[in-house]
Amino acid sequence: MNMRTLCLAVLLILPAPAMAQSCFDLWVGRNTIYDNNGYCFKSRLGRTYFDNADCYTNNARLSKAEHRRVARIKAQEKRRGCRIRTNVSYYNSRYY
């Protein structure tokens, strides 16, 4: 099990109020689901963070549970007004 998968597993079992996550954490959590399903990232940040070395699709097939998790994360991102700059190749906390 790689570190991203382990982190995602922890995120999935923690209750929502206990997860005081940043917008970047939410972005990583959501995109880790896609990465684990072979998605090839197009954004500069996505390619840098997730590497794309093992990607194989531009249309990742998610399970129903994964779709629900992505929807919950997107809703949380929307509530917080998250806007991740994906045209950069590194994470800088000043921007998030």
Automatic annotation (TrEMBL):
Keywords: Signal
Signal peptide (from-to): 1-20
Protein name: YARHG domain-containing protein
YARHG domain location: 6-78
Stretches of the chain forming a coiled coil according to its record: none
Classification via InterPro entries: YARHG_dom (IPR025582), YARHG_sf (IPR038434)
Species of the source: Cohaesibacter gelatinilyticus
Listed SMART domains: YARHG
